Amino acid sequence: MTLLAACGGTTAPAATQAKPLDARMCTPRSVRAVAPEAATVTAPVTAFRSPGGAHIERFARLNVNGAPMVFGVLGERVDVHCRPTWLHVELPIRPNGATGWVRADHVDRVPVHTRIVVDLSERSVSFYRRDKLVLRSVAAVGSTATPTPVGRYYVNQLLVPSDTSGAFGPGAIGISAFSPVLTGWAQGGPVAIHGTNEPWSIGRAVSNGCIRLHNPVLKKLFAQTPAGTPVIIKT
Questions:
Q1: Which of 81, 88, 106, 194 is catalytic?
Q2: If we measure between CA atoms, which residue out of 63, 59, 57, 66 comes closest to residue 43?
Q3: N or C: which end of the chain has fewer CB within 10 A?
Q4: Which member of 7, 81, 82, 210 is catalytic?
C-alpha cells in the first residue's frame, strides 16, 4: 500500500510543463560539418557550387551503370530550427575531389562507420570499421605512366561483373576518383578497387590506376563496404 500511495497518491506535486522537443534554435543558413554519411538520390537532383548558386551537374536516381546515385556528405546548411536544407557533398565527377551543394529533401541519408585507406608506397589497402582495423592486404596500384590518383574520395557504387573470372574478378568497388591521364576511356576513366585474373600483379605498380586485390580479399571487402565509405589514397 505504501508503494501504491507513493506512485499514485494525491499528495504528489503538480507536474511542470515540459519544453517542446523541437525547441533547439540555430543561426539560419549556418553550415556545420557532419560525421561521414551516404546520401542516396531519391529524385533527380542538381548540384550547385553554392546553395542556389551556379549549376554544376544534374544527377538522376541511377547512374550510368544502373547503380543508385550516391554522394558522400561533408556538411549541412540548416534553418532556424536546425533542420538541414542543403548538403555539401562529394561528387563522382571530374575534377577529382569535386564537391557541390544539393537540396537535403532530394536524398536519403545514412551514417557510415567504415573507411578505406590505400597506401601507394606500401601498396596496401586497409579497411576500418568505427576506427578499428578489420582488414589489411597487399594490392596492385597504378604504374608510373598511369598512376592511381591521390586524395580523398568515397565509394559511389558496388558492381558485380558479368564475367567474375575476368579482369575485375568477383566484384568492383567503384570510387569517385578518375584516372589523371586516361581521360578518353569509357565513362571518363573511373577508378575502382577490384579483383583480378592476374594474381601475379598483386604487390606491383602495374595497373591503369585501379587498385587490385586477390579475389578472396576483394570478396571480404566487397561484402563489408557500404556506399558512401570514405576512401583515402595517400603516397
A1: 194
A2: 59
A3: N
A4: 210
Cell numbers representing residue 1 in the block: 500500500
194 is catalytic: yes
What pairing do the DSSP bridges indicate for beta strands 70-78 and 31-41? antiparallel
Cell numbers at 124, concatenated: 596496401
Asked whether 221 and 208 are in contact (CB, 8 A), the reply is no
- The three three-digit cell numbers of residue 85, written as one number: 536544407
Pairwise CA distance, residues 168 & 164, whole Å: 7
Q: How far is CA 16 from the centre of its chain?
A: 45
Contact 223, 114 (CB under 8 A): no
Sequence-distant (≥ 6) Cβ neighbours of residue 44 within 8 angstroms: 58, 59, 60, 61, 106
Collapsing DSSP states into helix, strand and coil, what is residue 11? coil
Exposed (0-12), middle (13-18) or buried (19+): which is 217, by Cβ within 10 Å?
buried
pLDDT in tens, the chain (235 residues): 333 333 333 333 444 444 444 556 899 889 999 999 999 999 999 999 999 999 999 999 999 999 999 999 999 999 999 999 999 999 999 999 999 999 999 999 999 999 999 999 999 999 999 999 999 999 999 999 999 999 999 999 999 999 999 999 999 999 999 999 998 888 889 999 999 999 999 999 999 999 999 999 999 999 999 999 999 999 9
Cα distance between residue 78 and residue 220, in whole Å: 38
